[in-house]
Backbone:
């Protein structure tokens, strides 16, 4: 089966975070009109409300709250506004429970967000585009969402193979279906018009050495998934059934101790964001 | 069944230990829980003679990685965490010779590579500390491919260990 076949056989695909690829393009274009970014966010009233609520939180240490998007953008900057938008979109996509993967409500979202944070830190250390890497991290588990909605693909079969033969989930997916969740995610993201810079690290997350382009980002993704697992955020059954590629570490060249610091930072940031969201939901 | 709730159940308390955190108590009605031990190692301790128990959720093996963080949150690291944990237990009159420990967690990826095996390093660091302090470990559930959640009932001296697929009960007394 091909990834495109999986997409065509699923009755209901996850809702497209349509705002993200356009916003990313606008952010990267130094000539783009700031008003256009604001107009684009404003197309979605609930998104606008959440951006305002979060930008007014203690995290950004505002003395007086922003009452409109222009004000919020002026205070915290476009990149931070984009990260809030991406976080909210990620929450809409990933926040529900998935029984077939043994995932409780919010667990896939926490995992995705933490992966985004680790990607962002690695990108900053390596002098790469942190916002793009953050977005890749946030969306990398999308394929699992799609597969769990497929009428005949059942993760119970994958877990049986994993446990019987001690192989990784990705390898079991490939043997059983001929396609992996990473490839399904990539196909859907291409359909949603995300750029290769976002898509390829996701597509080659489990085999970064094979990425024809953006190999460094694919290695970062591989290591980020590994690192987030070490934080205990890879919930679900057989969550540790993954192959770790020493190639990725050698290619990136970030020492293990530095990765552990990323873990500590991501742990703290996630705790803060969760508290923030609970407060803003209660407000 | 049914009828009025027992006094114990009315005063039952639940304490949740987060990643890099710990809790100790001499209230026998307390249940201490921690969620999603992956490569992290959970240490459960009980001194049933004085009904003192506690739980520690270690994330990393060595506090020298970031001493500032270790000073603020010693429980995050095996070395500083174990010291702080024992100090807190002894503060509630637990005795080293009577303490019984249960260890869980330390999951690892499949790869044979030695790199980034934090689960294994956490286990080694905790065991080294336990050996130095001559503490008694009564049971271990370490390694494997799954995250584990623990619920420790001090009064019963039992740990309910939840895996994605089922439950196991460990008796510590």
Residues:
């Amino acid at each position: 089966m091909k990834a495109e076949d999986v997409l065509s056989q699923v009755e209901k695909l996850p809702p497209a975070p349509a705002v993200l690829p356009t916003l990313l393009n606008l952010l990267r274009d130094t000539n783009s009109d700031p008003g256009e970014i604001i107009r684009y966010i404003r197309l979605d009233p609930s998104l606008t409300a959440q951006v305002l609520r979060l930008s007014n939180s203690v995290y950004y240490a505002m003395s007086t709250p922003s009452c409109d998007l222009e004000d919020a953008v002026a205070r915290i900057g476009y990149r931070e506004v984009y990260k809030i938008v991406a976080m909210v979109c990620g929450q809409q996509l990933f926040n529900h429970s998935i029984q077939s993967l043994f995932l409780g409500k919010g667990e896939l979202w926490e995992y995705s967000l933490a992966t985004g944070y680790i990607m962002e830190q690695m990108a900053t250390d390596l002098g790469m585009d942190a916002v793009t890497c953050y977005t890749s991290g946030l969306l990398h588990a999308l394929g699992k969402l799609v597969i769990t909605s497929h009428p005949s693909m059942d993760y119970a079969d994958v877990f049986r193979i994993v446990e019987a033969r001690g192989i990784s989930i990705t390898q079991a997916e490939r043997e059983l279906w001929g396609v992996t969740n990473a490839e399904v995610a990539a196909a859907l993201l291409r359909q949603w018009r995300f750029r290769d810079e976002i898509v390829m690290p996701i597509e080659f997350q489990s085999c970064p050495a094979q990425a024809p382009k953006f190999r460094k980002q694919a290695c970062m993704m591989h290591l980020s998934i590994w690192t987030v697992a070490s934080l205990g955020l890879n919930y679900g059954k057989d969550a540790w059934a993954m192959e770790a590629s020493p190639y990725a570490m050698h290619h990136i060249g970030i020492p293990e101790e530095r990765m552990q610091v990323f873990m500590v930072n991501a742990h703290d940031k996630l705790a803060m964001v969760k508290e923030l969201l609970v407060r803003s939901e209660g407000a | 069944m049914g009828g009025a709730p027992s006094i114990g159940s009315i005063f039952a308390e639940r304490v949740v230990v987060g990643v890099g955190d710990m809790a100790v108590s001499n209230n026998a009605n307390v249940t201490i829980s921690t969620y999603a031990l992956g490569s992290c190692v959970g240490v459960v301790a009980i001194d049933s003679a004085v009904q003192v128990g506690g739980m520690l959720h270690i994330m990393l093996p060595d506090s020298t990685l970031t001493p500032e963080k270790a000073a603020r949150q010693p429980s995050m690291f095996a070395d500083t965490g174990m010291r702080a944990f024992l100090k807190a237990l002894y503060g509630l009159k637990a005795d080293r010779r009577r303490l019984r420990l249960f260890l869980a967690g330390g999951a690892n990826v499949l790869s044979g590579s030695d790199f980034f095996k934090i689960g294994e390093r956490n286990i080694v660091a905790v065991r080294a500390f336990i050996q130095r302090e001559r503490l008694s470990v009564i049971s271990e559930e370490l390694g494997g491919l799954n995250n584990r959640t623990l619920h420790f009932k001090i009064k019963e001296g039992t740990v309910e260990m939840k895996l994605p697929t089922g439950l196991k009960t460990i008796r510590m007394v």
